[in-house]
């Protein structure tokens, strides 16, 4: 992993995308997250909105954009559940912020690094979500560590496939 | 100061957004009387607005995806895989005709059961009206086992309506939007349904666990609970009607929190992970459509015909038994006085095979009292003028009377007695003067 100066990285590669990609990719991620589990026997061992948030936060290298995008996607996901709105929002906000912050400091063109970042942030997001639920809100919510680990692995696999595809939609200077 | 905001801009934005969300979360949680925190079951207007927006964004594409998937499946099933359809259609039509009659009969039984239960003040429900709906989406989270259906307020769906499939219960409507509704499945951790084990009649509450498996919680240890036992709805939660299939017991595990309690893991009867079509129970009031009413009338008519046939059969059977009674020697007193002609028909006129029942109602013949073996002063006949005429002489009292003579002549025997040829005089005859 090559550590580079922040200004250097920023000058070197802040990627931009067409507006349609900005608008449709998160929407598609949210819709598919809600629809695909019906086709795969109800298994929801993936989090497409998180993967998309991490991708754009890394690519834009902007913590504020990552924070806003994470908050929006997380709140949207919360709204589709019957749980309190905000728990997932906070988790995704932190994930987006960290991804944007990391993007400033590391070489995010490397697929392995991006996959690892996705894996770590996926686990962190799960930890934050359940911490909020059980500690902050004091609600009783059982959870399964193995399921969260599997979810992080699946997210990483999705990232390996999805990130190169999204890379092709970049605006070339 | 300006440099502070510029320098820590990222962190300040993060903190502001986190703070706003934490405040929003705090507004959705309330503390119960028992000191535990819980989510408000009824969403606040602001929260509901967010859910409505999310639903409005997600539902149209989901509906489109679902429709296109159904289109592809339908193309295959309706145009390509159409072999033996005509024969199947004819068979199914016959089955439908038969089932409609059976259904009408069952509905009548249900109505009667409801009337009886109303008399007994039972609060149980019967299903009378359902609305079919398609499952079009999920929450996308394994910690929230909810799914969305394509019918909402436009089809008069309401909160807390039960959602079922022909296999078993699925969940209840949690939230209703204009064109869709959110259904909380029975395998969610926050769900709750009153259930009962079919054979042991043990009651409990069904809810989901972290793995999304439904389990009955709060049951005392009981060795009678075995895997394979059926689980039904108990009807006490006022959401699910009583007696609907829930699933079967898969295994019994100790309750991790309480020593003397167990959790019963249930395999759901409905395929909760592969739901396509569900039924929402929209009414438990008796509202029958015209077709069903016609079926019930047909069933009633058939029942009337059956009743008449049964009555005819009973009548024939009665006639046959009377003929047999005429031909067989009866245990009657051959010396019993013949019925008076006032009965409307003379015994001698009655022919075998005809009913001996007179057309007019006659009082039953009084049984002829036989002589007691050892009359004493308490014997009611002693001393009466009639008894003085008919009583046996004192020397005949010593002769034993047959047991059959102790019985008074019964009504049918009295009817048929004159028509039968009396058998050779039994010992009773000796007691007669």
The count of strands of chain A amounts to 0
Low-confidence stretches of chain B: 339-361, 382-433
CATH topology of chain A: Arp2/3 complex 21 kDa subunit ARPC3
Helix content of chain A: over 70%
- Spell out the CATH superfamily of the domain at 123-287 in chain B: Rod shape-determining protein MreC, domain 1
Percentage of β-strand residues of chain B: 15-25%
For this structure, what is the CATH class of chain A?
Mainly Alpha
Derived structural class of chain B:
alpha+beta
What does the model show?
The complex is a heterodimer of chains A (173) and B (433). Chain A has helices spanning 6-13, 19-35, 48-60, 63-80, 87-105, 111-136, 145-167. With 173 residues, chain A is mainly alpha-helical. The relative contact order of chain A is 0.16. Chain B has a domain at 123-287: Thrombin, subunit H. In chain B, 35% of the residues lie in helices and 19% in strands. Chain B is built from 8 helices and 14 strands. In chain B, the strands form 3 sheets. Chain B has a 6-stranded antiparallel beta barrel. Chain B has a 6-stranded antiparallel barrel with strand order 8-9-10-13-12-11. Chain B is extended.
What is the fold's blueprint, element by element?
The complex is a heterodimer of chains A (173) and B (433).
Chain A: H1 6-13, H2 19-35, H3 48-60, H4 63-80, H5 87-105, H6 111-136, H7 145-167
Helix pairs in contact in A: 2-3, 3-4, 3-5, 3-6, 3-7, 4-5, 5-6, 6-7
Chain B: H1 2-7, H2 9-28, E1 29-31, E2 37-39, H3 45-80, H4 85-119, E3 129-138, E4 146-149, E5 162-164, E6 169-176, E7 181-185, E8 193-197, E9 203-208, E10 214-220, E11 230-233, E12 245-254, E13 261-268, E14 277-283, H5 290-327, H6 385-390, H7 411-416, H8 428-431
Antiparallel strand pairs in B: 1-2, 3-4, 3-14, 4-7, 5-6, 5-14, 6-7, 8-9, 8-11, 9-10, 10-13, 11-12, 12-13
């Amino acid at each position: 992993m090559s550590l580079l100066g922040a200004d250097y990285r920023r000058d070197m590669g802040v990627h931009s995308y067409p507006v349609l990609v900005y608008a449709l990719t998160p929407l598609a991620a949210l819709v598919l997250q809600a629809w695909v589990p019906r086709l795969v026997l109800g298994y929801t061992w993936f989090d497409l909105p998180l993967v998309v948030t991490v991708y754009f936060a890394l690519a834009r290298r902007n913590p504020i954009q990552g924070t806003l995008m994470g908050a929006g996607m997380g709140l949207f996901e919360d709204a589709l559940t019957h749980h309190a709105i905000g728990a997932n929002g906070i988790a995704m906000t932190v994930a987006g912020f960290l991804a944007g912050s990391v993007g400033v400091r590391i070489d995010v063109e490397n697929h392995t690094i991006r996959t690892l970042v996705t894996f770590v942030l996926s686990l962190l997001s799960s930890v934050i979500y359940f911490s909020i639920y059980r500690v902050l809100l004091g609600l009783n919510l059982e959870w399964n560590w193995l399921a969260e680990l599997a979810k992080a692995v699946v997210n990483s696999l999705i990232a390996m496939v999805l990130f190169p595809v999204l890379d092709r939609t970049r605006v070339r200077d | 100061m300006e440099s502070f905001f510029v320098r820590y801009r990222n962190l300040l934005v993060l903190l502001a957004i986190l703070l706003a969300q934490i405040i929003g979360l705090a507004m959705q949680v309330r503390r119960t009387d028992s000191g535990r925190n819980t989510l408000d079951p009824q969403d606040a207007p602001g929260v509901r607005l967010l859910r409505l927006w999310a639903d409005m964004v997600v539902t149209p594409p989901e509906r489109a995806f679902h429709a296109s998937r159904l289109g592809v499946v339908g193309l295959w099933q309706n145009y390509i895989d159409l072999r033996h359809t005509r024969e199947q259609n004819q068979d199914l039509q016959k089955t439908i005709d038969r089932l409609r009659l059976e259904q009408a009969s069952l509905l009548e039984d249900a109505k009667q059961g409801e009337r009886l239960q109303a008399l007994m003040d039972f609060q149980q429900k019967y299903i009378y009206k359902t609305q079919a709906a398609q499952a079009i989406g999920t929450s996308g989270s394994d910690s929230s086992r909810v799914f969305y259906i394509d019918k909402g307020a436009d089809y008069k769906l309401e909160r807390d309506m039960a959602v079922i499939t022909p296999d078993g219960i699925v969940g209840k409507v949690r939230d209703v939007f204009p064109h869709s509704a959110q259904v909380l499945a029975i395998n969610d951790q926050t769900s709750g349904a009153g259930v009962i084990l079919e054979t042991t009649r043990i009651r409990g509450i069904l809810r989901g666990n972290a793995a999304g498996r439904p389990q009955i919680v709060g049951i005392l240890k009981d060795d009678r609970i075995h895997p394979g036992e059926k689980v039904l709805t108990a009807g006490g939660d006022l959401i699910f009607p009583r007696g609907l299939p829930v699933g079967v017991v898969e295994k019994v595990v100790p309750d991790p929190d309480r020593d003397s309690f167990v959790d019963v893991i249930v395999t759901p009867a409905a395929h909760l992970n592969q739901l396509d079509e569900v039924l929402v129970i929209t009414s438990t009031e008796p509202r029958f459509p015209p077709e069903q009413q016609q079926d019930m009338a047909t069933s009633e008519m058939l029942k009337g015909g059956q009743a008449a046939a049964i009555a005819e059969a009973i009548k024939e059977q009665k006639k046959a038994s009377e003929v047999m009674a005429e031909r067989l020697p009866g245990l009657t007193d051959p010396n019993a006085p013949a019925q008076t002609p006032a009965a409307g028909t003379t015994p001698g006129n009655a022919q075998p095979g005809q009913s001996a029942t007179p057309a007019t109602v006659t009082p039953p013949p009084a049984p002829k009292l036989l002589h007691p073996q050892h009359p004493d002063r308490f014997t009611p006949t002693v001393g009466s003028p009639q008894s003085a005429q008919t009583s046996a002489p004192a020397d005949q009292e010593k002769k034993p009377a047959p047991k059959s003579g102790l019985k008074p002549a019964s009504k049918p025997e009295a009817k048929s007695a004159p028509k039968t040829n009396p058998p050779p005089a039994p010992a009773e005859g000796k007691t007669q003067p």
